Every structure is written in structure tokens, then in C-alpha cells.
Amino acid sequence: MKEISRDSMGQAIYDRISAELIAGRLRPNHKVTIRGLADTLGTSSTPVRDAVQRLLQDRALEQRSMRDVRVPVPTAADYLEIATIRTELEGLAAARAAEIADARDTARLGRLVQRNEEAMLARRWHSAAEFNQQFHFALAEIAGMPVMLDILHRLWLRMGPLIAGYYASAEISPLQRHETILAACEARDPARARAAMRADIEDGKEGILAYIASFTGKET
Predict the structure, then answer these.
(1) Three-class DSSP category at 146
(2) Where are the alpha helices (DSSP H) in 23-145?
(3) What ranges do the domains of the chain cover?
(4) Which of 15, 31, 51, 105 could potentially form a cystine with 101 if both were Cys, beta carbons 3.0 to 4.6 Å apart?
(5) What is the CATH number of domain 6-70?
(6) Cα(45)–Cα(211) distance, rounded to whole angstroms?
(7) Cα 114 to chain center, whole Å?
(8) What is the mean pLDDT of residues 137-161?
């Protein structure tokens, strides 16, 4: 059996922590430790330390002191800039997906909408946030835009925790907009899909800004 190298182990752990951030399973201001992550992942500290260093460079984590590494709380300015970028990019992905989606693609989107609704009804907010993220990424995959998907991964490294944290605190999820996007894909209506995605991102702005502000002055 081929021995797993330190580099490949570090990449696997980086991918695992990235997935936790993107899906919103880690929330803003959450403190992480090398030892805690190593214990959770069942590995030694060295590859975890390497992965954390990469995530610090990505600004997906922040180091407040030698022993204090956390999921950052974005500034309002950072959030608004990324939201503007997402509005353009994800609107494009939704429009392109609506142009080319087939029955298998729309069935996939429909399952994600249904699972999101079921998670909300069961008050499983972690799961609802994850299905929300999967819906957004599925549109880029259906659109056949791998470069776009790579960009979205980097944006959602920083936005995943924030979006999930906000929707869980507000106990809501943007199902209505997702249902409109699904209907637009079924009808091959790219303009409607683009508009619904842009509205989906715009809808949460006021609440997310208030959520960001709620961290000011909190005990750490």
C-alpha cells in the first residue's frame, strides 16, 4: 500500500476543514485548536498545523494570539464586497444553469430544496444551512463552470460560517427564492433565475449586517 505523504495528508485535512467552513458547520468567532482538530480528525498535530496555516493565509481563519485561532467575524465592508461579487457570479451561474439544465439537474435541485425544507421543519439549522450551500454550488456545477466553482469555494470559505450563523440565529432559510430558481430552471428562463438568485443574496443583507454587529463587545 502506498504510504500517505505529509503533503497529501495536509491537503486532505485542509479539504476537510474547508468543507466544514463552507457548509457552515463552524460558525463566526468559533475558537479552534490544533490539538482539538487533530483529536476530532484522528491524526497528529503536524498536518493539522499545516492546514491551519493555509487557512490563515486564505483569511478563512484568523489568529488573535499565539493560542487563539478563530473563525473570523467579517467586517461589514468585507461582507458587502463579497456579497456584491456573489450577486454577479452566482446570478450568472443561475442563469446559465437555467439555459442548459435537464430533467436530472432539476430533480437534483428539487431534492435539495425539499431536504432544506425538511431540515427547517425539524429545526435542524446546521443541516438547513448545509443544503442551502449545496444548492448554490449545484447551480455552478450544472452550469458547467469549474472556474466559477473554484472562485465560489474561496468566497464561501469566508461566507459559509457567516451565512449559516445568521440563518440559524434567525431560524429562517431562503427557500422561496430557491423554489423560484428551480422553477426558472424547469422553464428554461435564465433571466428569472438570475433575478431570483440576486434577490436571494440581497434579501439577507440587512439581517446579516445586524448579525455581524451583534459580535461587537462580546466576551471572548
Answers:
(1) helix
(2) 34-41, 45-57, 76-100, 103-121, 125-142
(3) 6-70, 76-213
(4) 105
(5) 1.10.10.10
(6) 33
(7) 19
(8) 96
Contact 141, 90 (CB under 8 A): no
Cell 431562503 belongs to 174
29 φψ region: left (φ > 0), alpha (ψ -120 to 50), beta (else): left
Quote the CA–CA distance of 135 and 120 in Å, as a whole number: 15
Tell me the C-alpha to C-alpha distance, in Å, between residue 155 and each of 12, 18, 29, 88, 185.
20, 11, 18, 13, 24
SS (H, E, C) 10-31: HHHHHHHHHHHHHCCCCCCCCE
Distance (Å, rounded) from C-alpha 130 to C-alpha 149? 16
Architecture of domain 76-213: Up-down Bundle (1.20)
What's the pLDDT at 55? 95
- Residue 92 C-alpha cell reads as 450568472
First-to-last alpha carbon distance for the chain, in angstroms, is: 46
Mean pLDDT of 148-163: 96
Above 50 in pLDDT, residue 4? no
| Dist. CA 137–CA 79, nearest whole Å | 19
Q: Which amino acid is at 201?
A: I
**Of 3 and 198, the one with more pLDDT:** 198
